[in-house]
Amino acid sequence: MRRDVFQAIADPTRRAILTLIALQAMTPNALAEHFDTSRQAVSKHIKILTECQLVSQEQQGREIYYHFNPQKMKEVADWLAPFQKMWEERFDRLDNILEKLKTQKDGK
Amino acid sequence: MASKNETKITAEPGKQELFIEREFEASRELVFRAFSEPEFLMQWMGPSDMDMKIDKLDNRSGGSYRFVHTLRNGAGEFGFNGAIHEVAAPERVIRTFEFEGLPERGHVSLEFLTLTELPGDRTRLSIQSIFKSVDDRDGLVQSGMEVGLNEGFKKLDDLLIKQF
């Protein structure tokens, strides 16, 4: 099974988990309270997120805390950025061409 | 001139398609011309660090096209070609797309370009690309030629910007 960042964030529950722990590190119990699904289901998502290195676990006293790994998430943003930028540049040039065409049309 | 019109790109993980959406401050007829006439196409279509040449553009139902992008530093050139399934001016073009830089042939995608008239003489462009496999889509994404941005990613991106 493929285990990468993209697979990890393909699931809406996992995206919600990431959003929550990005705001604050959480214990399994605190995290499970936010979801209607079973604790096992949440654990399974956490396992996938951990394997993808988006989430790390830290033992504090008797409790385990889940932490978000922003560096790993940045890989996604970086990976997507060039394409977005390329199309934005293309469309900005297209805007300029359309402005010129409009002027030509009005001049006739 | 930076545009106030946002470029929206959607590529959900694990899917074989991607969507590009953008609005323009011009009539549908004008946008269609800028997409179909070689003179205009060459001015905007090529990536900013490349020169674009139109090898062939037979822009009608049953026609075909071939574009070549050349890196300005002479380091290489990239060809693209496809068959044009349908041209329904000024609202729709359906065509195939193949990047010639791949080690083997056959990794073809299908593109639907749709132009919708909006109030105030504005136009919405929607491009839907459907790939042969998820790997084909992601491969092209990784090549920097075709990349996607999902709504879910966007939310996380925004969060990351705020947080870090």
Description:
With 108 residues, chain A is mostly helical. Chain A has a domain at 5-69: Orthogonal Bundle (Arc Repressor Mutant, subunit A). Chain A has helices at residues 5-8, 12-23, 28-32, 39-51, 70-107; strands spanning 55-60, 63-68. A two-stranded antiparallel ribbon of chain A has the order 1-2. Chain A is elongated. With 164 residues, chain B is of the alpha+beta class. Chain B has a single domain (19-146), classed as 2-Layer Sandwich (Alpha-D-Glucose-1,6-Bisphosphate, Chain A, domain 4). Chain B has helices spanning 28-36, 38-44, 134-142, 151-163, and strands at 8-10, 17-24, 50-57, 64-71, 77-88, 92-99, 108-118, 122-130. Chain B is globular and about 45 Å long. Classes of the chains: A mainly alpha (108), B alpha+beta (164). Chains A and B meet through helix 2 and helix 5 of A and strand 2, helix 1, helix 2, helix 3 and helix 4 of B. Chain B: Residues 26-160 form the Activator of Hsp90 ATPase homologue 1/2-like C-terminal domain. Chain B: InterPro entries: ASHA1/2-like_C, START-like_dom_sf. Chain B: Belongs to the AHA1 family. Chain A: Keywords: DNA-binding. Chain A: This is DNA-binding transcriptional regulator, ArsR family.
Major sheet description of chain B: 8 strands, antiparallel
**Strand composition percent of chain A:** 5-15%
Provide the domain count of chain B: 1
What is the number of helices of chain A?
5
Average the pLDDT over all residues of chain B and give the rounded result. Answer: 81
Give the fraction of residues assigned to helices of chain B: 10-25%
Low-confidence stretches of chain B: 145-164
The CATH architecture term of the domain at 5-69 in chain A is Orthogonal Bundle
CATH names the topology of the domain at 5-69 in chain A as: Arc Repressor Mutant, subunit A
The total strand number of chain A stands at 2
CATH topology of chain B: Alpha-D-Glucose-1,6-Bisphosphate, Chain A, domain 4
Tags for this entry?
heterodimer; A: about 110 residues; mainly alpha; Arc Repressor Mutant, subunit A; two-stranded antiparallel sheet; 5 helices; about 10% strand; B: about 160 residues; alpha+beta; Alpha-D-Glucose-1,6-Bisphosphate, Chain A, domain 4; eight-stranded antiparallel sheet; 8 strands; about 25% helix
